[in-house]
Amino acid sequence: MAKQISMAVIRRLPKYHRYLKDLLEREIYRISSKELSEIIGFTASQIRQDLNNFGGFGQQGYGYNVEELYSEISKILGLHNTYNTIIVGAGNLGQAIANYSGFQKSGFEIKALFEANPRFIGLKIRDLEILDVEVMEEYIKENNIKIAVICTPKESAQDIANKLVKAGISGIWNFAPVDLQLDGNVVVENVHLTESLFTLSYLLNEKEEATR
Ligand SMILES: NC(=O)c1ccc[n+]([C@@H]2O[C@H](COP(=O)([O-])OP(=O)(O)OC[C@H]3O[C@@H](n4cnc5c(N)ncnc54)[C@H](O)[C@@H]3O)[C@@H](O)[C@H]2O)c1
């Protein structure tokens, strides 16, 4: 990719990806930026600007070729790759993520879960083994693991992240409500569900105050 793409654009790409997939499922193969704008909720000029970052796949008077655009955005998002993935912490959230088969379909191959609680070690979620966290670093090295999903309590998250970096992990999907401090060039994406819920709460309150 020759051009540096802003994080704001990157954050919008999964939404384009989702809507384009939906169009393909409905056998719609061509769409104007105006029509795309109506379904996706971004302005037509925003869409043109965003997609121009990648060379602009639209043609004057034709619109966008949905298949081509979908395939390009998939490539930009790295979804043509397969990522060997592990989950650390096999509690409520770790199990829920392991039970969702959709991640696998997008190339995130969950290989195993890791636990500190001996009561969980040796059990299975679907066909995935729950292994002792003591063997996690060795497993990462031996199985070419690229991504780790942290689903431990926040007290253990930093220690786990340090071990993951030491073992050579490339990316961390962090659900623990803590900002990880990491050396090295590991990529971290935080999903702080409570922050999102509190934003919803703010918006609800704002709306209620406006109608008072
Ligand atoms: N469940 C949710 O909906 C939710 C929502 C928002 C945030 N979170 C966050 O996600 C994380 C997990 O939540 P949960 O509800 O699944 O908790 P949980 O207590 O059900 O599961 C956490 C698991 O991590 C294991 N664990 C603890 N230390 C460990 C270590 N060092 N190595 C390996 N495993 C270890 C525990 O034994 C436990 O099984 C928490 O940080 C929580 O704040 C969860």
From TrEMBL:
DNA-binding span(s): 15-54
Keywords: Cytoplasm, DNA-binding, NAD, Repressor, Transcription, Transcription regulation
GO MF: DNA binding; DNA-binding transcription factor activity
SMART domains according to UniProt: CoA_binding (SM00881)
One GO term of the biological process aspect: negative regulation of DNA-templated transcription
One Gene Ontology cellular component annotation held by this UniProt entry: cytoplasm
CoA-binding domain: residues covered: 78-179
Subcellular location: Cytoplasm
Binding site for NAD(+): G89, A90, G91, N92, L93, G94
InterPro entries reported in the protein's UniProt record: CoA-bd, NAD(P)-bd_dom_sf, Rex_actinobacterial-type, Rex_DNA-bd_C_dom, Tscrpt_rep_Rex, WH-like_DNA-bd_sf, WH_DNA-bd_sf
Function: Modulates transcription in response to changes in cellular NADH/NAD(+) redox state.
Subunit structure: Homodimer.
Protein family membership: Belongs to the transcriptional regulatory Rex family.
Protein name, as recorded: Redox-sensing transcriptional repressor Rex
Source organism (scientific name): Tepidibacter formicigenes DSM 15518
